[in-house]
């Protein structure tokens, strides 16, 4: 493959790559090329090996305690116990690896879903395909905010600027051209090439793919792409710390129990026997095993991963795992207006030129409407200023009107604002193709949301004619003249205020208003500076378009307010338009709750912090304003979600606690910086993601409380029996089994709980509140005490009713412990309502988990009786147990009732 593409003129490059300058490759050719070149993907570094994953599992402090416990058991000759512990450790490690890799796969699949697409021309049509499907010879269109998807030779450029820091280390963007270069030039100076993974910061261009995947310059240097580091969420970190503390505490208790046991034995017999020491050692060890919630980290990982998959099905793709938890704490959602709160389905309904307001009929992008003046159809021949206005909006336009080949439905490619303008012009018979042939575009200053306008310059006979369109309040100030009766007249103060009044009126009807201006040049200006080119203009007129609110947005705003979340609208649009829509949606109730970017600029930091407390609409904001707003909100201790689509929004998204990128209109760069991508660009989707985030966290909290109350009860049973001087109620192997059986399955099922009915009626979770909060602590204390009491009661009953037979008594304790914990899992299903409210058996995973666990217990006391050292029980014994086991569940339910009633 040659590499001197930059030496060749565009035509020759296209020819050598067997492509076509305008139609690109055919589908057939592309498929063949894909076969021989493979996917356009950089190879990733080999993933962690299975062995190192296994080692990773054994690094855990708690697992180390277990391994020591197994060794000690073996040393004591308790081979069954030693093997049992080892089996549990290995099972746990395998489970951990399986679940982790499942979670990893789920994450990778999600990443794939938000992987970038590229605009290519194939078979003469512009289509969007995944960047990995690009092949040499493909014609690619790139624009500001895109990552260059492969190595390109630039064929046509409109002010393209590319930042190549990832390749050359140079962070100042390079201006590109299509002209061939002479000789062998260094990478950084190949100004007619755009390289994979570099970033378009301005303008747009058409290029042809000359190299893909590992053949690209970045592929050659980087060789292997680092896979992302494993991300640990704040919750997982806290849990890690917590389990260390738990481990230390547990070692302490075990030591205490050991010496207490020895002391008891000594008191009873007056001396200490070997078997006594051995039993105490084994008890201490199994206590350690019992107190450790082994399954916890794995269950947390899998619940987070499953939650992310659920969210992806509802159009929110989480890119950073921490977002799942943070979503539940969100107190403010700052949202764009256009497309997020509104439908982004623009239709021009008003036009203003030469002092007259015209009405446009018709809907959507179908150009079969009419332009009327005072309910008569306007004749372009007579309304020349209107004609110029419509020509201007058709020329100064990068969108395309399209018609679906099967359904005949009209649609657009590109920006809906511009699509609406094309439709409006077409209603007067002005088609983009026709007018562009007549006045070809020779130069342009692309739109950016900072300037809020764009300019194109066209050949106009011997001369050049520039059209500028943009936000009226800004564009009018760049105008010195106005078009009226087909004449250029000076723009006086009275006219300006008249224009502003019209703008205000149209915007007040929730219309998005654009102004259009022109300027004639005798020679093509060389400057690309806005101050020079977009100045001293001749105003032609205004157009107003509707963009109806999304129907689901109103409901979502209500849900937010109930959930203690404040929705804030941040828009580049005019204040009057923004207010009208925000009032309609219920984001504000009074026009005073809004402010413009300009007003914001006047405020000091403390003033702004004060202002954001009651301002919920920010209009005509710049990307810098967005950053300032996030900072001010965070200074007020708010947890902020911020949406964005443009390249300039990236800093604000990074600043926010959760940056949300738009999936449809979002640029590659915003998506890369975002913590979450909303694939349907819909505000309501963000709100449902918050709901999902809250549910996931609530479920994690539930199973942590459940696991802890089980473990605590086991510790208490042993500990209190020791204090009372009783024989040990549960053997190590029994404890191990109880722990294994009751832990993981019901806990996982708790992680699958559906949302509770009040989940969006509570205030956002305080992120500084511990996972085990006060209500959790109360429930853990209550349940574990109740379980302890019934287990000790069952043990005592079994002991005295069966002639002091210790192994029958332990059988009683064992079965009662398992059953009461399984029943408590049902109580844990609802944090503060009675579980009967949601329906006792409404979680089918829980029913399955409990049935399975119960079966495993039957196996332990049946076929495995010899290993578990249990005794067969009579029907009467079983009835006693059946009477005792539900008590902790009832205590927990009554406890919830009392604890949460008084609140
Ligand atoms: N293609 C365009 N050409 C010229 N001017 C435009 C174009 N698109 C938008 N504008 C003007 O620039 C302003 C800001 O646009 P921008 O895209 O930054 O925000 P927006 O889409 O109006 O609102 P939001 O930030 O809520 O999405 C618009 O209100 C409009 O006046
Ligand atoms: Ca926008």
From TrEMBL:
UniProt EC number: 7.2.2.10
Membrane topology: Multi-pass membrane protein
Ranges where the Cation-transporting P-type ATPase N-terminal domain occurs: 4-78
Short name of any one Pfam family annotated for the protein: Cation_ATPase_N
GO biological process terms, semicolon-separated: intracellular potassium ion homeostasis; intracellular sodium ion homeostasis; potassium ion import across plasma membrane; proton transmembrane transport; sodium ion export across plasma membrane
Record's keyword terms, sorted: ATP-binding, Calcium, Calcium transport, Cell membrane, Ion transport, Membrane, Metal-binding, Nucleotide-binding, Phosphoprotein, Translocase, Transmembrane, Transmembrane helix, Transport
Classification via Gene3D superfamilies: Calcium-transporting ATPase, cytoplasmic domain N, Calcium-transporting ATPase, cytoplasmic transduction domain A, Calcium-transporting ATPase, transmembrane domain, HAD superfamily/HAD-like
Recorded family membership: Belongs to the cation transport ATPase (P-type) (TC 3.A.3) family. Type IIA subfamily.
The protein's name in its UniProt record: P-type Ca(2+) transporter
Lineage: Bacteria, Bacillati, Bacillota, Negativicutes, Selenomonadales
């Amino acid at each position: 493959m040659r590499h001197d593409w930059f030496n060749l003129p565009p035509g020759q490059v296209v020819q050598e790559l067997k492509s076509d300058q305008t139609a690109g490759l055919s589908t057939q050719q592309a498929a063949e090329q894909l076969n021989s070149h493979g996917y356009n993907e950089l190879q990733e570094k080999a993933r962690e090996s299975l062995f190192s994953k296994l080692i990773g599992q054994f690094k855990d402090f708690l697992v180390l305690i277990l391994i020591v416990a197994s060794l000690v058991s073996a040393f004591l000759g308790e081979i069954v116990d030693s093997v049992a512990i080892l089996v549990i450790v290995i099972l746990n490690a395998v489970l951990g690896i399986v679940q982790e890799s499942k979670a990893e796969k789920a994450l990778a699949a999600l990443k794939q879903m938000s992987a970038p697409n590229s605009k290519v021309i194939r078979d003469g049509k512009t289509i969007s395909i995944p960047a990995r499907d690009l092949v040499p010879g493909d014609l690619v269109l790139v624009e500001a905010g895109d990552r260059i998807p492969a190595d390109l030779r630039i064929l046509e450029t409109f002010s393209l600027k590319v930042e190549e820091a990832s390749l050359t280390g140079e962070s100042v963007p390079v201006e590109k051209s299509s002209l061939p270069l002479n000789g062998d030039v260094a990478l950084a100076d190949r100004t007619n090439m755009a390289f994979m993974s570099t970033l378009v910061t301005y303008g747009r261009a058409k290029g042809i793919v000359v190299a893909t995947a590992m053949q690209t310059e970045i592929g050659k240097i980087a060789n292997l792409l680092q896979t992302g580091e494993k991300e640990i969420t704040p919750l997982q970190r806290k849990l890690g710390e917590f389990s260390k503390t738990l481990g230390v505490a547990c070692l302490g208790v075990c030591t205490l129990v050991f010496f207490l046991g020895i002391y008891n034995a000594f008191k009873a017999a007056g001396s200490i026997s070997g078997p006594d020491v051995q039993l105490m050692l084994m008890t201490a060890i199994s206590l350690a095993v019992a107190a450790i919630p082994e399954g916890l980290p794995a269950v947390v990982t899998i619940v987070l991963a499953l939650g992310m998959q659920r969210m992806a099905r509802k159009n929110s793709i989480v890119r950073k795992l921490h977002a799942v938890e943070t979503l539940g704490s969100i107190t403010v959602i700052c949202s764009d207006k256009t497309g997020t709160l509104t439908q982004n389905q623009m239709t021009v309904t008003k036009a203003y030129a030469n002092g007259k307001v015209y009405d446009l009929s018709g809907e959507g992008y179908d150009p079969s409407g009419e332009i009327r003046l005072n309910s008569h159809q306007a004749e372009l021949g007579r309304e020349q200023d209107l004609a110029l206005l419509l020509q201007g909006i058709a020329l100064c336009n990068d969108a395309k009107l399209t018609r679906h080949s099967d359904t005949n439905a009209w649609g657009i490619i590109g920006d809906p604002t511009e699509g609406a303008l094309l439709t409006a012009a077409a209603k007067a018979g002005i088609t983009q193709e026709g007018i562009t042939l007549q006045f070809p575009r020779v130069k342009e200053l692309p739109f950016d949301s900072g300037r809020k306008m764009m300019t194109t310059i066209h050949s106009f006979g011997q001369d050049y004619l520039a059209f500028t369109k943009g936000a009226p309040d800004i564009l009018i100030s760049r105008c010195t003249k106005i078009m009226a009766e087909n004449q250029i007249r000076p723009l006086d103060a009275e006219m300006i205020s008249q224009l502003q009044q019209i703008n205000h009126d149209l915007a007040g009807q929730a219309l998005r208003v654009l102004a259009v201006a022109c300027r004639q040049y005798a020679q093509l200006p060389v400057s690309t500076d806005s101050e020079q080119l977009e100045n001293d203009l001749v105003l032609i007129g205004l157009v107003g378009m509707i963009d109806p609110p999304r129907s689901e947005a109103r409901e979502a705003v209500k849900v937010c307010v109930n959930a203690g979340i404040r929705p804030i609208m941040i828009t580049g649009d005019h204040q009057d338009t923004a207010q009208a829509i925000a009032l309609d949606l219920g984001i504000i109730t009074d026009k005073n709750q809004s402010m413009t970017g300009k007003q914001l600029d006047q405020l000091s930091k403390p003033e702004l912090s004060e202002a954001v407390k009651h301002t919920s609409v920010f209009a005509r904001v710049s990307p810098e304003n967005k950053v300032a707003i996030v900072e001010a909100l965070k200074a007020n201790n708010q947890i902020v979600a911020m949406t964005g689509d443009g390249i300039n929004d990236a800093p604000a998204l990074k600043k926010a606690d959760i940056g949300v990128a738009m999936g449809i209109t979002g640029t590659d760069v915003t998506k890369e910086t975002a913590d979450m991508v909303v694939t349907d660009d819909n505000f309501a989707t963000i709100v449902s993601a918050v709901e999902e985030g809250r549910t996931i966290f609530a479920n994690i909290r539930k199973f942590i409380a459940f696991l802890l109350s089980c473990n605590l009860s086991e510790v208490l049973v042993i500990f209190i029996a020791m204090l009372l001087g009783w024989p040990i109620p549960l053997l190590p192997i029994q404890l191990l089994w109880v722990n294994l059986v009751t832990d993981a399955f019901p806990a996982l099922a708790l992680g699958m709980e559906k949302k509770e009915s009040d989940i969006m009626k509570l205030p956002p979770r305080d992120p500084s509140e511990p996972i085990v909060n006060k209500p959790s602590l109360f429930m853990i204390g209550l349940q574990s005490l109740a379980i302890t009491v019934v287990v000790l009661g069952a043990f005592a009953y079994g002991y005295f009713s069966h002639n002091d037979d210790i192994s029958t008594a332990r059988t009683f304790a064992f079965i009662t412990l398992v059953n009461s914990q399984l029943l408590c899992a049902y109580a844990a299903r609802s944090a503060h309502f009675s579980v009967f409210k949601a329906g006792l058996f409404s979680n089918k995973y829980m029913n399955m988990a409990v049935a399975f666990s119960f079966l495993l217990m039957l196996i332990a006391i049946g076929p495995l009786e010899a290993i578990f050292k249990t005794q067969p029980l009579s029907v009467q014994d079983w009835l006693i147990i059946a009477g005792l086991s539900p008590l902790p569940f009832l205590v927990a339910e009554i406890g919830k009732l009392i604890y949460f009633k008084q609140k």
